[in-house]
Automatic annotation (TrEMBL):
Taxonomic classification: Archaea, Methanobacteriati, Methanobacteriota, Stenosarchaea group, Halobacteria
UniProt KW keywords: Amino-acid biosynthesis, Aromatic amino acid biosynthesis, Lyase, Phenylalanine biosynthesis
NCBIfam families the record matches: PRK11898.1
Source organism, top-level taxon: Archaea
Keyword set includes Signal: no
A Gene Ontology molecular function term of the record: prephenate dehydratase activity
UniProt pathway annotation: Amino-acid biosynthesis
Residue ranges constituting the ACT domain according to the UniProt record: 183-260
Name of this protein: Prephenate dehydratase
This protein's GO CC annotations: cytoplasm
Signal peptide: none
Amino acid sequence: MKAVTLGPEGTYSHRAAGAIADEVEFRESVTGIVAAVADGAAPRGVLPVENSIEGSVTESLDALTEYEVAVVRELVTPIRHALLAQGSDFDTVASHSQALAQCRAFLDVEYPDVALEAVASTAQGVERAREDPTIAAIAHPDTAGDDLSVLAEGIQDQASNATRFVAIAPRAERSEAGGKTSLVVYPNDDYPGLLLDLLEPFADRGINLTRAESRPSGERLGDYVFHIDVAAGLYEERTQEAVEAIEAIAEEGWVCRLGSYDTEHVVA
Ligand SMILES: O=C(O)C(=O)C[C@]1(C(=O)O)C=C[C@@H](O)C=C1
């Protein structure tokens, strides 16, 4: 099956998508990936949502709220970054903002004087380094090709660095089967204990939260959309009861079931 993901060729997203798709097509942003699946231009999309060092890929969370899609798989993959350049004579390091942040300590210690340039993907940073000897890139070592040297490998701040990707499908393909569920909740309300009320239905039913993240709704300051992932499937009665309880609390807003899925660990 075809999947759209973040390009150009050689991104970590491309590698993750290759684990589940036999044909991969590229978009320049994660919003573009989600829009392509919502519009029916592609049956699947693969996008990064969270990294073990740097946390949320906020553009992905916002796009999952904005467009009608379902989360159908979760792929967790180790991320090992390399520093690539034509030679040692560079004054700028270009990469995706997530990759730059994941290598912050390495850059501070080894290259305290270089400028950092955030680009749309790690592979785009590699393209910049290929064109310009004053630019180095942070990316997967396999993207070096013949033109670039691998100056350092394993430069991420933690050896255990890992990124969680999701595979998305049109909303009609949402599944209730799986050991995990992703929900987005917009209470459109504000009172002491609101967040406690939203989380209690899970605690009361012994459902473990694997993640709770707030994103600004964009409506007004202090107004939030909550991304809640739980270790239970929508097929389970306890999950359905908890979601119904949350729907009652969020009656001024909405609750979106992105879907249930299982976690797959891939070495991409
Ligand atoms: O730029 C890439 O290679 C991507 O696939 C994006 C991305 C991200 O957004 O987190 C994916 C995995 C790594 O954490 C670094 C960058």
